[in-house]
Amino acid sequence: MTRAALVSVFQAALDVGGSVATDFEILDPAEQVRAGAFHFLSDASRYISAHAVLRRILGQVLDKAPAEVKLGRAACPLCGGPHGRPVVLNGPLAFNFSLSYAGGLALVAVAMRPVGVDVERTVGRTTMRNLTPLLHPCEQREFRRVDRPLECAAFTQLWVRKEAYLKGLGTGLARELHLDYVGAEGLAAHPVGWVFADIEVPTGYSAAVAIAAETGQEVVVELQ
After folding, report:
1. Containing domain of residue 190, as a range?
2. Which residues form a coiled coil (predicted)?
3. Do the beta carbons of residue 85 and residue 172 sit within 8 Å?
């Protein structure tokens, strides 16, 4: 019997208030430089808080102090450059994780196989209209059947599935959006070797996780 593919998804509120200085101290030098490059203080504060959340969760899972977790990047599958999936350099070889944050919410997915997670605030109608033509043709056809009041929420749920998958691949949005179908219908047409699960999050957000799995393999999502 094929073992189930297990992914743990942690949800955390971002603290962009008094703990930012403490959070900054547990980031590594590269993260600190990135935090200092943001133009707006609010963006820097969310980045610091989200990456501190990530480090605390990885430290908990790997039994390390947050500041001791060494992060790096795998090779990009498109160009071979050092900007593919994020990796833990001092963790188990098969260990994978993914971070996403939006507004005041952060999600971290961890698994012993490639994984991607994405959370977004519900997009507006203008954003939806601008991005829909970039999607897979079958996804565009599905959208035409969605009632107008539900369009923005439906689009956002599809978008987080697609971003979770592209993050799991390690390409991010460098891979063209029309190449892969991740819609809710025609599940057999999903990318071979990947399974998707929508994640329950507060009203006004959508979230999903994508995990590498064999065809027909059961996937168990543990919400933490």
Report:
1. 113-223
2. none
3. no
